[in-house]
Design brief:
mainly alpha, 15 helices, 72% helix
């Protein structure tokens, strides 16, 4: 009997990690989009980047239950790390991406110890404070970061030495989508592993997880570090595909927007960040074109409907009359 339960749990984790029939079609459509819609290649690249950023937040919010208002700290740190590496070391984008991930992960490891204690409100303030400190630091170190003018003169070499970035943005789009897919596969394997199961157990009941022998503090440090590294990768992608990094990457708006994406797409499943990023960017572009001054009002109204009606029922309006 003791062996039946672990075997059953392992089989369930393997089942969850398998691809559904529609998933390859979804990713094939995503990679075909820059070719089918060449005029939207840069927009596709941006959506892929913010989707990766949202997925990184979902790791700590949806799976570990760690609330954060300062996740832009890692996004911005990765952006500056990638841009500075390209400007002062070498312009190779893949190596720069790896360096930005490593440095952002190290920052996440150091900051992870600040969120191990306290309530959700405490974590909100601590994460927000860390992000604001990095923002002010980047502003003051203008000799390095460019300050309010941004870090300019960043030149990015061809991806893997062969695929140069073009003005239409196709290379940027395929590069961003490739990184998103790779990270998605790795994170999917992580969350559907025994480690991921322990993270969800900590989210559901931390005291019970401690009682059954799960090393809660160590697990939270690891997942926070991984999420920081992935967010840093998203920031580095933005800097590499635009050739620019500014204080905007560390702004509070970044953290707020990525939270809105998860509200739209749903937390606790990796596709939620991707779906939320796609819907949010489409809504942002469409509504800002129609009502440039009041587009946030309409997004706020949609969020109210999501909370009041529910995501599933909002997609099925014929069920609204039910209680």
């Amino acid at each position: 009997m003791d062996r039946i339960v672990p075997e059953a749990a392992r089989a369930e984790l393997l089942r969850l990690s398998r691809w559904r029939p529609w998933e390859p079609l979804l990713w094939l459509a995503a990679f075909a989009a820059p070719w089918l819609l060449p005029g939207q290649a840069l927009r596709i690249s941006e959506i892929a980047i913010v989707a990766l950023f949202a997925v990184s937040l979902d790791l700590i919010l949806g799976y570990a239950g760690i609330v954060s208002l300062g996740h832009a700290a890692f996004f911005g740190f990765g952006a500056y790390a990638g841009a500075l590496f390209a400007k002062f070391v070498m312009p190779e984008p893949v190596l720069g991406l790896a360096v930005a991930m490593a440095l952002s992960g190290l920052l996440g490891f150091l900051l992870s110890f600040t969120i191990l204690r306290g309530t959700d409100l405490t974590r909100l303030m601590v994460t927000l404070g860390a992000s604001l400190l990095l923002l002010e630091l980047a502003n003051k170190l203008d000799w390095l970061t460019g300050g309010a003018d941004g870090l300019q003169g960043v030149v990015i070499g061809p991806v893997l030495g062969h695929f140069a970035f073009d003005l239409m943005g196709r290379t940027a789009a395929w590069y961003s989508l490739a990184v998103l897919l790779l990270m998605f596969l790795l994170l999917r394997r992580l969350v559907h592993s025994p480690f991921g199961a322990t993270i969800e157990a900590i989210r559901d009941n931390r005291l019970r997880a401690m009682a059954i022998g799960i090393p809660v503090r160590a697990r939270l440090v690891v997942i926070y570090t991984v999420a920081a590294a992935v967010a840093g990768a998203a920031g580095a992608l933005l800097a590499q595909t635009t050739g620019f990094a500014s204080l905007d990457v560390l702004a509070f708006d970044r953290s707020a927007d990525v939270l809105l994406m998860l509200v739209i797409g749903g937390v606790g499943w990796l596709y939620g960040g991707i779906a939320g990023a796609l819907v949010f960017k489409i809504l942002q572009d469409t509504l800002s074109a129609v009502t440039p001054e009041y587009w946030m009002f309409w997004i706020g109204l949609i969020l109210v409907l999501l909370v009041r009606v529910g995501r599933d029922r909002l997609l099925r309006p014929w069920t609204w009359w039910r209680t």
